[in-house]
Amino acid sequence: xxxxxxxxxDLLARGIQNAxxxxxxxxxxxxxxxxxxxxxxxxxxxxxxxxLDLGLPDMDGMDLLRQIKTHQKTSTKIPVLVLTARDxxxxxxxxxxxxxxxxxxxxxxxxxxxxxxxxxxxxxxxVLDENIAIGNITLNTASYTISKDxxxxxxxxxxxxxxxxxxxxxxxVFSRExxxxxxxxWDEEVCSNSLDVHIHNIRKKTxxxxxxxxxxxxxxxxx
Length: 223
Description:
Strands 2-1-3-4-5 form a 5-stranded parallel β-sheet, sandwiched between helices. A 4-stranded antiparallel β-sheet has the order 6-7-8-9, covered by helices on one side. Strands 10-11 form a two-stranded antiparallel ribbon. 40% of the residues lie in helices and 20% in strands. The chain has 2 domains: 2-124, Rossmann fold; 131-220, Winged helix-like DNA-binding domain superfamily/Winged helix DNA-binding domain (Arc Repressor Mutant, subunit A, Orthogonal Bundle), CATH 1.10.10. The protein is an alpha/beta fold. It is elongated and about 60 Å long. Strand 8 (145-148) and strand 9 form a beta hairpin.
């Protein structure tokens, strides 16, 4: 995920960059609004998600948000997460009304920021084809069903999310934490063995060898 962080506080910016880089994100930093606009308008540096501080030295962040949204009328929509010390209800309402996709106030926990970014990534990720096929397994993303050798099975939401994640990324190992992050919302409580139960149920429908376990590491599907 390519993230553009628009933040003029050097210490905070470095902390966010270090935290997000640990989960394999590519982070670009803009400390001025005009610098951010140049990065967004350039196809070579246009990000997947924007984190926007409203207190910028050269322009008000709300004005920058309006410019970003105006640009997106003729370009690809980029989710914007506003990250700011402006914590009044009026400020939050204004930010969301002006087009922000999420609004998080300072101070904040890094884990919550990362979870909110994952939600925005999931929402913005396009589905190119209703059917994803690997071997004798076909996952239909419209009907939440899988087909194995002509036999169809329905999938509950969380089983579907796990299988979709693995089949969209064949050969990539996902850890327990990564799958939990993709399946559950950031504020949901997760039972210790719930992920194992979901994977067990999926294997009953796909066959025990379709999702492979890498002991101590995680799970993957091989194309």
